[in-house]
Amino acid sequence: MTPPPLNPVSVLAAMTALLMSCADPGASPPGGGENTGGMAAPDQGGAPGETDATADADLTARYEDGPGPLSPRVENETCRLPAAPPVGAMRLAPAFADLSFDRLLWMGAAPNDDRFIYFIEQGGRILVADAGNPVSTKVFLEEEVRRGHNEEGLLGMAFHPEYTQNGRFYIYYSASNPVRTVLSEFQRSAARETVADPTTERVLLEIEQPFGNHFIFREIQNQQRSAKVNAMVNLCLAKAAKDKNAVE
To answer: How far is CA 174 from CA 107, 123, 154, 191, 196, in A?
Structure first.
C-alpha cells in the first residue's frame, strides 16, 4: 500500500514545535509573553527561578564529575552544550624531529617486534627506522607505482601475523598499463632484516580501474546516480501522461 503524501503544513508545524522545544529556556514564545497557542510550554528541566548561568554551571559541574571521557553521559535538558572540560597538561611535540617524509601515509611496527618503525610514502617508498633512536631512515622497499592522480600511489601496508618468522608483508598500490590497483605479497631479505627483497613479489589481486580517483567505487556511484536519474525521468513522464489523459 502506497503511503499518503506528506502534508507540507503538518511538516512545518512539527518542525516549528521541535525548534521551540530547543529554544532558550529564558525566552518567551513567539507572539508575546504568554503561551497562547494551546500547547503547554516545554519542561526546561530547571528549578523555578533558575537562570541560564545557574543551569550552565550545574551542567558543567555534572560534566566534570567523573574521570573525563569515560564518565557517564551528561543529561542535557535544555538543548545547550555544557562547557568544555579543561585540557590539562597535554602539549604537542614533534614525534620524529630528525626525520622528513614526502606524503607520508602510514607508520607502524611489525607484530611482536618493536625494534623498528616502518613508514610508507605515497610515491612508492617504504622506510624503516630504529625505534630506539629514530634519527635516520633506510629504504626498506621502493616499488614503482602510478601517480597520475592525487589519490594514486602506494596506499597501504600490512604485516603477516607471523612476520617475525616468515618475513611476509603486503602492500596495496596503483599501477599503469592498464590502470589498476594491485595487492601483492613480498618477503624481507634473508640476509638483512631491514631490507625487503623486491624479487619476491607475488600478485594476489588486480582490479582494473576506470578512473584515477576513488577507483572502482566511483564507477559504482556513477551507475547508482544514473539509475536514480532514469527513475526520476520515468516518474515525470508517467505523471505527464496521466495528467494528459485526465485532461482529455
So the answer is: 19, 10, 7, 29, 19
